[in-house]
Amino acid sequence: MDMLLEASSMAKRPCLCANDPGCRHSHCCINPKVSKSEQMEDLLEAFLDFSDSSSALSLHLSFEKLLDSRACDSDQSLLIDRALRLGSALLEAGKRSARKRASIHNSMTWALPPDLTIKVFSMLDTQSLCYAAATCSMFHKCAMDPLCYANIDLTTVVPKVNNAVVSTMIQRAGKVLKSLRLGIVPGPTLSPGSSQPLVYTIRNSVDAAGFSWNDKRSRQGKESSILTRSCLTALSGDTGAAGALLRRLHLYNIERMDNTALCAALSACPSLLDLEIVGLHVELRQTLMSVSTNCHLIERLFFESSKTGRDDSLKALTCVDLVNNCPHLISLALRGFKLHDYKVRILVKGFQKLKYVDFSSSYSITGTFLRNLGSSTGGSLLEVLILRDCMHLKEVEVAKFLSAIIAGDFRLLRLLDISNREGLASEGDWYYRCYNSSMIPIKQVLEERPDLCLLAEFPSEGSIIEIEQMIDILNSDASLSSHLSSHSSESSVSMSSSESSYNSDQGSGNEDGREAGYVIYEESSDEVDILAV
């Protein structure tokens, strides 16, 4: 035992039996023809002979005698420390050898070659890939291939992922990164066309285990599982190589993300085709400006506000720039924003390939933007139109739109959602809600267009809006009320006369009808009066 613990200093000690020709203690004699590694192997083999349980007691007694032979307490402590280090080294050596043997065994018994294994791993979700990488050395080596991280999905129900994890995954993917999904989602992924909100506040959440977010944060101490504004920094690192070929970016409820960080990430993603933003505290105008500047190939844009009905930052000039710089847009969803009809009209009529539109929970849309969409270039390709829970959506505008469908417009439309939990607004006063109006020709539409899925769900009777919510809406809409009222008088026409005028842009509310361009009403001193598309 003493010789094994002091093997490193054996060569400097004279052998006690060096002059005895009959000595056969090969473990204590220095043979110049034997290498140090061979001496160590002989000593280790002799030491491992004591590994069986019957020799455990004798090994313990021998070590105690060895300690007793040291008179100084510091020498005894040093000997114990060296014994612990030797035991740890042997333990790690044994584990490494076991893993190596298991990896060799797996490589011999695993049916797939490494390239096909990598292909299979690339089809796994990120969490399953991490589990596979922890299985054995062979799987770990295959799981480190960049192709396995081309589609990164780090969405969770409760906070589990931090910036370091995101950065590591992005660095592993490198230039092959195609898809990145981050953040907190309230539940399973919703099907296309669903209008259920995805905004999620983690501080008020309770997961399946019954622990609130505040409890979890106190246990985590340093909030190690929180994504911050710098979680996407790796996309622009290494001269932006990671984000250069990124096609899809989905961000959910990252509360610490701000406009600067998001715009910096978008500037590193020139090939982006699919952008989904839910519950981020970022401004609509700045985000769309960044998309317009950096993401010219984008085909799908989904943006849901973290504060429904409060973001009124969008300007008409921003809409025009987005239309001109992103001509390939097919799907557009702006949910929970204050979108005025003339701005919406710029977007819907401007995008020539637009098929999917979702303006759910917009507090300012009245429906006048729907006029003359079916017979014009912009809007004629619409397949899905969702206007669920638009507070100011007027009953008369919905009726006119459905009449246009009956007349033969919007032949490609397959889904229309005009449901409203508060009912539709009346023509004269939006405080007066309409729930079961005979003015809307729903039955005729279904008879004329059996292929159209029409969702028109309204409460059986008026529900009561909280007083605080109503006051907040009134205060936030104070600047808009005069604008809407000035145009409501122009659009207040009877159904008998509206059939002939519906396909004309005259009197359409807050936009002009000239096909050559859009008349943009002045919003601020820095806004242009007339912008031609």
Layout: helices, strands, pairs:
Blueprint: H1 2-5, H2 36-48, H3 56-68, H4 73-109, H5 114-121, H6 126-133, H7 137-143, E1 151-156, H8 163-173, E2 179-184, H9 213-220, H10 233-244, E3 248-252, H11 259-267, E4 274-278, H12 284-294, E5 300-304, H13 316-325, E6 331-335, H14 341-350, E7 356-358, E8 384-386, H15 395-406, E9 415-417, E10 424-425, E11 433-434, H16 442-448, E12 453-455, H17 467-476, H18 478-491, H19 495-501, E13 518-519, E14 530-531
Parallel strand pairs: 1-2, 2-3, 3-4, 4-5, 5-6, 6-7, 7-8, 8-9, 9-12
Antiparallel strand pairs: 10-11, 13-14
Helix pairs in contact: 6-7, 8-10, 10-11, 11-12, 12-13, 13-14, 15-16
Annotation keywords:
533 residues; 19 helices; disordered C terminus; 10-stranded parallel β-sheet; two-stranded antiparallel sheet; alpha/beta; elongated
